[in-house]
Design goal:
Helices cover 8% and strands 30% of the residues. The chain is built from eight helices and 50 strands.
């Protein structure tokens, strides 16, 4: 077989007319391509989407003030050709193969590619495109080279491609093409025609096969092809019989049937013909996988193999049936077919079975559409599980105590539920001590209202722990230093880092970003380099996000809870540098721990925050949570103008401020819980009143303002 070589003249990276500008429509087309393919993530995106001349953009060739070549092979480019690509009407080369990343997407080639009448070289191999290729490719009368191999294209090859009279190379290998093959024997310049590893059958190849194979100078590759049909699985009782049939097009086909067991160590030829009859005489017969090989005297060198035909035991006979069925019934969205043999319930390989005991050893329920529901207690009956993965779903309710009896678990992923409603109401239970083989535990974003249990730290094989965003408070437990890989970001840890972390040797990763640590807390860890990977930037203050509304003319002061910073220096904020920002732009001169807006106007509306830095740990930033400010005169224009009021901060931990637009000697503010029970009541004698809510339980409350002009109600959140 000839080797398919790249044409040097087509892939040579030419960059003439270096400083030439191209038409705006061509620049816009390139920017659309950059955005559609996530250009910020490319391996090399030098000068792309900048004011620099297009001729300096990586991979772009400009000749005579037009874009003529795009050469971006193996550049980590997401597969998505936007329709604007059709506006590059002087384009000669479009070369975007990616044999490194192996992306997969639902994007296809846009019809507008047919506008590229000067295109000579089109290489999109291994790029992860799908769908049908457009018939508009047949408009590219100058096309010499078309390489679409190793994508996921489907459907038939467009008849319009036979119009490409200049075509030298047509490579369509490694897709899902099927159906009749157009007659390309009229393309006299065609040297390479590759259609192997698709879904073609003998009947598709027969019409022009002898011409292709008999044409001198044509490298025609058609073998192998993908397996025929889809796998057949059926649950039957012992004593049942089934007939399996062939389904291959072609006029002179021969079929041979075989069977093998799971590891291929037994079986062999069992007969020939268009069908076979199979009987399950004993349970042992459930081990067989049946298939056929089809050959044709008209298409030598090609054998088409079918997918497997498999008869399995009734699922109710499996020892894990009841537990798995309980999981299926309790969780909505699982794509299982429970009528099939149990090993083929899941098309996504959610279940793994031990080849000897036949028990379930791995249960992974992950997917693009989150699974909902409550984990059933029967999960504890899957006693041979070594891996349980419910990561990135939308489960809710309490994690059943029975789960902690799965003594053979090595990996347990329960975290990152979409709605954060999966709970451990009493923290990690002491029964976790049963999981002596556990190596990896992920509880990301599951609220842990209790301290971490000592039984967790005593697990001898635990090497990876994920407790991100679990609401853990206080000093970070020293026992975590015994675990090599810990992600504990976005909690409320604070204070001195225990010496055990500083002295740790050989540990891999510690991530504590987004906690309440300050510069003094982190300096020893940063200097000691005790972890291969130590992530600590940024940290945050204890302030919460606020939404504030004010009328123009008010003086507004923003503050930071920074009393704990550099506490060992006996001087609040010693060495701290503050910088306030509005809408991500530094405010000139706003370099104190508070910032006041005098005589606020509508132009002061925006999102404010502050960053604290210190030379103790130069690359650490401590962020104050966002304050969203609205200054708007229209706030006073409605039927309740005289009773409009503002409540801030909201949410709040200890105190809230109630601000009235106008003093009303009859004004009373009353707080109710979510059930309507009165909690507090206060007369309002000034424009600003501070209410103490520190003793309230966390939750949602209603604040009602009653004056001589009417009643208004606002919702507040107690943290």
């Amino acid at each position: 077989m000839k080797r398919l070589l790249l044409l040097p003249s087509l892939i040579f990276f030419l960059n003439s007319s270096l400083n030439a500008q191209v038409p705006q429509i061509e620049r816009d087309a390139l920017v659309a391509f950059y955005n559609a393919t996530f250009g910020a993530n490319w391996t090399n995106n030098t000068n792309w989407n900048t004011s620099n001349p297009v001729s300096t953009w990586f991979g772009i060739t400009v000749e005579n003030n037009h874009v003529t070549q795009i050469n971006l092979s193996n550049n980590n480019i997401w597969p998505n050709l936007p329709p604007e690509i059709g506006n590059l009407q002087e384009l000669v080369t479009l070369n975007i193969p990616d044999e490194v990343s192996f992306f997969s997407s639902t994007s296809t080639i846009p019809d507008e590619i047919g506008n590229l009448s000067k295109l000579e070289y089109l290489d999109l191999r291994s790029w992860g495109l799908s769908g049908e290729i457009p018939k508009e490719l047949g408009n590219l009368s100058n096309l010499l080279w078309l390489d679409l191999r190793f994508n996921s294209f489907s459907g038939s090859i467009p008849q319009e491609l036979t119009n490409l009279a200049s075509l030298n190379v047509l490579v369509l290998s490694g897709n899902q093409f099927s159906g009749p093959i157009p007659n390309f024997t009229t393309l006299l310049l065609l040297n390479y025609f590759w259609i192997d590893n698709n879904n073609f059958q003998f009947g598709d190849l027969e019409p022009n096969f002898s011409t292709y194979t008999g044409t001198s100078g044509l490298d025609f590759v058609y073998s192998p092809q993908n397996n025929i049909g889809e796998r057949y699985d059926e649950a039957v009782a012992v004593g049942s019989s089934r007939t399996f049939n062939t389904n291959v097009s072609g006029s002179q086909n021969t079929y041979d049937w075989y069977r093998i067991n799971a590891d291929g160590s037994d079986g062999g030829y069992i007969g020939s013909g268009m069908s076979i009859n199979v009987t399950v005489n004993t349970v042992d017969d459930f081990k067989w996988f049946y298939y056929y090989d089809a050959t044709s005297s008209l298409i030598p060198g090609l054998t088409l193999r079918s997918e497997f035909f498999k008869l399995g035991n009734l699922p109710s006979n499996h020892p894990d049936y009841d537990a798995l069925l309980a999981v299926y019934n309790a969780l909505s969205g699982i794509n299982w077919d429970t009528t099939k043999p149990i090993y083929s319930w899941s098309p996504n390989n959610d279940l793994t079975f031990d080849p000897v005991s036949d028990r379930v050893t791995e249960l992974r329920i992950t997917g693009n559409n989150p699974i909902t529901g409550v984990i059933p207690p029967e999960i504890g009956d899957l006693t041979e599980l070594t891996s349980l993965d419910f990561f990135l779903e939308d489960l809710s309710g309490d994690i059943p105590i029975e789960l902690w009896n799965l003594a053979k678990l090595k990996t347990l992923f329960l975290g990152a539920q979409e709605s954060n409603l999966l709970r451990l109401p009493n923290g990690i239970p002491p029964q976790i001590a049963n999981l002596q083989d556990l190596e990896w535990l992920n509880l990301t974003q599951i609220p842990l209202t209790q301290p971490l249990q000592p039984e967790l730290f005593n697990l001898p094989n635990l090497q990876r722990l994920r407790i991100v965003g679990c609401g853990l408070t206080g000093t970070i437990p020293k026992e975590l230093a015994s675990i090599s890989d810990v992600l504990a970001a976005d909690n409320e840890f604070e204070g001195t880092i225990p010496q055990e972390f500083i002295d740790a040797t050989g540990n891999q990763t510690l991530s504590i970003t987004g906690n309440y640590f300050d510069f003094n807390d982190l300096e020893p860890m940063v200097l000691n380099h005790s972890y291969q990977n130590f992530f600590y930037n940024p940290q945050r203050t204890k302030d919460v996000e606020q939404d504030l509304e004010f009328l123009p003319g008010n003086d507004i002061t923003f503050t930071i809870d920074d009393t704990r910073h550099n506490k060992f220096k006996n001087s609040k904020g010693a060495g701290d540098v503050y910088q306030w920002f509005k809408d991500n732009v530094a405010i000139n001169g706003a370099n104190a721990s508070s910032y006041t807006i005098t005589n606020a106007q509508a132009s002061d509306s925006g999102v404010y925050y502050c960053q604290i830095t210190n030379t103790l740990v130069p690359d650490l930033v401590i962020n104050r949570a966002n304050i969203t400010l609205l200054v708007d005169a229209s706030l006073s224009i409605d039927e309740n103008d005289k009773v409009r009021f503002a409540v801030y901060p909201n949410p709040s931990l200890n105190f809230i401020n109630v601000r009235l637009n106008n003093i009303d000697k009859e004004a009373v503010v009353t707080m109710f819980d979510i059930n309507g029970r009165k909690i507090q009541e206060h007369p309002l004698k000034t424009e600003n009143t501070i209410l103490d809510i520190s003793s309230l339980n966390s939750g949602i409350y209603l604040l009602q303002l009653k004056t001589t002009e009417g009643i208004l109600t606002k919702r507040i959140i107690k943290q």
